[in-house]
Design brief:
Elements lengths: L1 H5 L1 H27 L5 H13 L1 H33 L14 H4 L1 H29 L8 H9 L3 H28 L7 H28 L2
Helix pairs in contact: 2-4, 2-8, 2-9, 6-8, 8-9
This protein binds protoporphyrin IX containing FE.
Length: 219
């Protein structure tokens, strides 16, 4: 197993697998949060279920946190190895000649997403842990919607979220096809995959942007 992570292809495959997992999470996360645009009750119900179901809380959530940490750590390792490989940037990379601007800057868009996640965890997750385990309060199944709306009142937070979501889109635009390439599965279906990747990297961030702006304008 350690040999797998030591090989360049092993690291890329591990990176791709964690990316697929996180991309799947983003679909679910967007699907849950998008309900807040049209049904306060449905959003509260789903959030309550997600927040109290033991399988989600104690099995899926730790796996998700592990997936996020793994993806970041592996991303840094890949970046460092690539830098070492040719002293400056990506291995076999000849600047704009054979790689796009975004593919060379995955680490920077990744760092913005990491900064966003720190803010996002402070905003929602720390609060959840506090309410559930530290300053335990009686469960209020209808609190989620108002908590969400309140978060998007300050313009600075909405701006920080929106900028992060644009960077997330750029990160996904390259990451989506790159992950498939690392798994060696673009052959013959390249165009279709590229189109799905484009659609995914626009729809997911745009959905989150709409949610943030909607609650900012409708509280
Ligand atoms: C408008 C956009 C978003 C909203 C309203 C939102 C809302 C939330 C809420 C309410 C939670 C707390 C869930 C809980 O523990 O009960 C949460 C957790 C989380 N969010 Fe978001 N989110 C947004 C965008 C994103 C994005 C773009 C990412 C990833 C890049 C992300 C990653 C996470 C992660 C990793 C957690 C912790 C998961 C967990 O608690 O199980 N979120 N989000």
């Amino acid at each position: 197993m350690s040999g797998f992570f030591k090989s360049s292809i092993g690291r890329k495959v591990a990176m791709a697998l964690s990316a697929f997992f996180l991309m799947f999470f983003l679909i679910i996360h967007l699907a849950v949060n998008i309900t807040s645009l049209f049904s306060e009750d449905l959003f509260n119900e789903l959030s309550h279920f997600m927040g109290t179901n033991p399988l989600i809380q104690f099995a899926l959530q730790p796996v998700l946190i592990f997936g996020v940490v793994f993806h970041f750590v592996m991303g840094f390792i890949l970046e460092l190895k690539n830098k070492k490989a040719n002293g400056v940037s990506y291995a076999r990379n000849n600047g704009a000649a054979n790689s796009t601007w975004m593919s060379r800057n995955m680490i920077y868009s990744g760092l913005v997403i990491l900064a966003f996640l720190v803010l996002h965890f402070a905003d929602f997750w720390v609060h959840e842990i506090n309410v559930k385990y530290v300053n335990v309060q009686p469960e209020e199944p209808t609190r989620y919607f108002h908590e969400l709306q309140e978060k998007f009142v300050p313009a600075w937070r909405v701006a920080a979220y929106v900028v992060s979501f644009v960077l997330l889109g750029l990160h996904l635009a390259h990451g989506f096809t790159s992950a498939f390439q690392s798994m060696g599965s673009t052959v013959g279906r390249k165009k279709t995959l590229q189109n799905i990747g484009k659609a995914y990297s626009i729809i997911i961030p745009l959905g989150f942007i709409i949610i943030a702006l909607f609650h900012h304008l409708n509280h």
